[in-house]
Amino acid sequence: MAVYTEVGDEELSSFLTDYDIGHLVAFRGIAEGVENSNFLLRTEKDGVARDFILTLYERRVNPAELPWFLGLMEHLATHGVSCPLPVAGRDGNALRELAGRPAAITTFLPGVWPRHVQVEHCGPLGEALARLHEAGTTYAPTRANGLGPTAWQPLLDKAAASQGTEETFPGLTAELRLALKRILSAWPPSSDPAVLPRGQIHADLFPDNAFFLDGRVSGIIDFYFACTDLLAYDVAICLNAWCFDETGHFDTARRDALLAGYESVRPLTSAEHDALPALCAGGALRFALTRLYDWVNTPAGALVTRKDPMDYVKKLRVFLSDMSVNPVHV
Amino acid sequence: MAVYTEVGDEELSSFLTDYDIGHLVAFRGIAEGVENSNFLLRTEKDGVARDFILTLYERRVNPAELPWFLGLMEHLATHGVSCPLPVAGRDGNALRELAGRPAAITTFLPGVWPRHVQVEHCGPLGEALARLHEAGTTYAPTRANGLGPTAWQPLLDKAAASQGTEETFPGLTAELRLALKRILSAWPPSSDPAVLPRGQIHADLFPDNAFFLDGRVSGIIDFYFACTDLLAYDVAICLNAWCFDETGHFDTARRDALLAGYESVRPLTSAEHDALPALCAGGALRFALTRLYDWVNTPAGALVTRKDPMDYVKKLRVFLSDMSVNPVHV
């Protein structure tokens, strides 16, 4: 929620001459996007105002991977998904440099992200996720999931080794070790792609990354965790992100709406249904681990908001109990 | 640079029914405005997109003073100043409540604030400031300057009494005491309004509060320090905010351009010219004092950016030396 890098006026003017998008009309920092600096950029061309988002890529995004992300967004946007379309400069390249950072201009999307998720959001969200998965099947380049199951043990080890983890969260790393073991033993084998369909997943489709307008999804943003992985794992991440109410209770009406919306476009296979409890627990563990790692590795005085890992530990407990009670179907 | 308060979707929809500005199309947090939460709000009415800024007023702004600020902005906007125009709801009131905060919708202004001030900005800025002063003469309500000369001694006393001030800034409060004494003895008497013209001043017209487009000032924002005070003191604040280069050197070419731009609309009286060195030193002292106070009273871990008071102490030294060398004219 910040602008990390400022862009000089002459720099900006000079940067825009590389594009055929008209002349600059307005430029305002956007308080969204956790990792990058984003600006609303308005231009005018032939008397018509046009809006874009200018993104400067900060730490955490590997510049070498930006062509994959921008390529995916372009592919999805041109295959019916309401996501930002990267705008190419006059030389055909969308990925450029500004203020010493990799930078790109993408189209501005209408809508409002839901500050309070309702069951009514979950059906359209599930449907939009399925359309994203379908559109992604024809994007051939792949990107490994850097925060997938193989990353969890090292993340947990690092968090456990950090000073203060045990004092701040007594017993937590031991609990997470047991959970990790259970989840990995139930995880669908990646060696047999026929079992669970794989493809391009968003992997971070939280409410602040989905804009709604008139009850429909009008935009999906922030593809910088996207990767090639189990499609049903993306569904599981959304069940984590969208289906717990504000008291931490798992809302089965939201889950049912999300799955029904998804399956109205792409029915889950029975193997995917069977795997969902483990995938949901895995999704909860993934966010619990990255939040725990960030929590114990962020200096108390840093200018970033630390997110409490316990929110996801509680979700993890719900899904682990679901794995026990109902090991076959969610 | 943040959004402090989030607005629920239903809350926002319900809030907008109080206005006749069309239906909601987009809503994004803006990373600008130091003290308040600001959002870009786009609506559509009769097929035409319209942009606004929604502001939620946070701490530091006294709700009782909001009618004065909004009244001033409306007056200025309808008297030729490019500033945000408050939008009234169907009941005629611009000041409303949203998410438990006082809230107002104002028009969106085009332009870009200059990240790197050039001499070319200073003429148009001076001219825009003079037009603001002229337009303000017909706005009758007054507001005392809460951060004017009478506030400086108590601010300095509080900063001096804070733990750590002397260790962090050795000798600084003693230096500021001497400066304050000199400045107050040279300050124009407020008892004789004929000496220096008084009126509505912005009092915080820093580069990030002035948008430019095609070499002209396209917007002046953030009126929440505005008050009724010496017009030339507003000029002095701008000389502080716009005329030092990035190495801390006072750029007389910028000063000359700013004053020439101002005087092309409203010539300063000779008494105002004579007073400028003391007013400039007072402006530097005012920002040095509030920054020092904030610095020593902001916990190291707080989620706000502390501004170094020494930047303004250095400016203060420049203006104090100017008071000695050239006591009559800047």
Structure, explained:
- 2 copies of one chain form a homodimer.
- The first copy, chain A, is α+β, with helices and mostly antiparallel strands and 330 residues long.
- Chain A folds into 2 domains: 9-107, Phosphorylase Kinase, domain 1, CATH 3.30.200; 119-325, Aminoglycoside phosphotransferase (APH), C-terminal lobe (Aminoglycoside 3'-phosphotransferase, Chain: A, domain 2, Alpha-Beta Complex), CATH 3.90.1200.
- The first copy, chain A, has 10 helices and 9 strands.
- The first copy, chain A, has helices at 9-16, 66-77, 119-136, 149-161, 165-168, 172-186, 231-242, 252-263, 270-297, 310-325; strands at 23-30, 37-45, 48-56, 96-98, 101-107, 198-201, 210-213, 216-220, 227-230.
- In chain A, strands 1-2-3-5-4 form a 5-stranded antiparallel β-sheet, with helices on one face. In chain A, strands 6-9 form a two-stranded antiparallel sheet. The first copy, chain A, has a two-stranded antiparallel ribbon with strand order 7-8.
- In chain A, helix 3 packs parallel to helix 8 and helix 4 packs antiparallel against helix 6 (172-186).
- The radius of gyration of chain A is 20 Å and the shape is globular.
- The model of chain A has no long low-confidence stretch (mean pLDDT 92).
- The A-B interface holds A 1-3, 6-10, 12, 24-32, 40, 42, 49, 108-112, 114-116, 211-213, 300-301, 303, 305 and B 1-3, 6-10, 12, 24-32, 40, 42, 49, 108-112, 114-116, 211-213, 300-301, 303, 305.
